[in-house]
Design brief:
Blueprint lengths: L4 H12 L4 H13 L3 H14 L7 H12 L3 H18 L2 H14 L1
C-alpha cells in the first residue's frame, strides 16, 4: 500500500520521539484506514512490546480487530486475551468489555 502524507508526517514525528505511544497508535490507524491491515498489525505489535511496562490498552483491541479482518483468528484471540489482562490491570473495564465481546464473537 502507498504511504499517505499523514503517515509521512507521523513517521517524521516518530523520528524525534520513537517511544511516543500515541503517535505509534496513530500510525497504525492510518495504515488501517488505508486498507493495510497487515502493516497496522505490525505497528500495533511493536507498540504493545514497547509499552509492556505500562500497556497502551487500545492497541490490543485494534490489533485484534485487524487480525480478524485478515482472517488470522487464532492470533486475534491471543492478542485479545493479553489485552483483556492488560485492561484489567489498568482498571479499564470499558476496553476489557469490548475485547471480551470481540473474543467471544470469534472463539
Amino acid at each position: 500500500m502507498a504511504r499517505t502524507p499523514r503517515m509521512a508526517q507521523i513517521e517524521a514525528m516518530l523520528a524525534d520521539d520513537p517511544n511516543d505511544a500515541f503517535l505509534r497508535y496513530g500510525l497504525a490507524m492510518e495504515h488501517a484506514s488505508a486498507g493495510d491491515d497487515a502493516e497496522c498489525v505490525t505497528v500495533l505489535r511493536d507498540l504493545i512490546v514497547r509499552t509492556a511496562e505500562a500497556p497502551y490498552v487500545p492497541a490490543f483491541l485494534q490489533c485484534g480487530q485487524a487480525l480478524v479482518r485478515l482472517d488470522r483468528t487464532a492470533e486475534a484471540c491471543e492478542v485479545l486475551r493479553a489485552g483483556i489482562g492488560a485492561a484489567a490491570r489498568a482498571g479499564d473495564t470499558h476496553a476489557q468489555g469490548e475485547m471480551q465481546g470481540l473474543l467471544s464473537s470469534i472463539e
